[in-house]
Amino acid sequence: LAEKRSLGSRDGPPHLVVLVLLHSRAVAHDTLRLLQSQDSAVVHMDEGRAGGFALLCPRLKQRWHFVTAQAGDLHAVLDLAKVADSLLFILDPADGWDSAGEYCLSCLFAQGLPSYALAVPGGTDLPPKKRIDARKKLAKTIEKRFPEAKLFPLNTEQESSLLLRHLATQKQRHLAFRDRRAHLLAYTAEFVPSQESDLVGTLKVSGFVRGQTLDVNSLVHIVGHGDFQMSQVDAPPDPLSLNPRVVKGQKRSQDMEIQDDSVNGTDEMEEDVKVLMKADPNKQESLQSEVVPDPMEGEQTWPTEEELQEAEASLKANRKVVKVPKGTSKYQAAWIVDDEEEGSQEDDDDGDEDDDINDDMMEEAVSQEGESSEEGEEHAEEECETMTVSECLRDDQYDEKMEEDEEMLERYKQERMDEMFPDEVDTPRDVPARVRFQKYRGLKSFRTSPWDPKENLPRDYARIFQFQNFSQTRKRLFRQIEKEETEGASVGWYVTLHVCNVPVSVMESFKDGKPLVLFSLLPHEQKMSVLNFLVRRHPSNSEPVRAKEELIFHCGFRRFRASPLFSQHTSADKHKLERFLRPDAALVVTVYAPITFPPASVLLFKQRSNGMHDLIATGSLLSVDPDRIVIKRLVLSGHPFKIFSKTAVVRYMFFNREDVMWFKPVELRTKWGRRGHIKEPLGTHGHMKCHFDGQLKSQDTVLLNLYKRVFPKWTFDPHVPEPVPWVRSESVLLVQEVEMD
Question: Composition bias, kind Acidic residues: at what positions (predicted)?
Answer without folding.
Answer: 337-363, 371-385
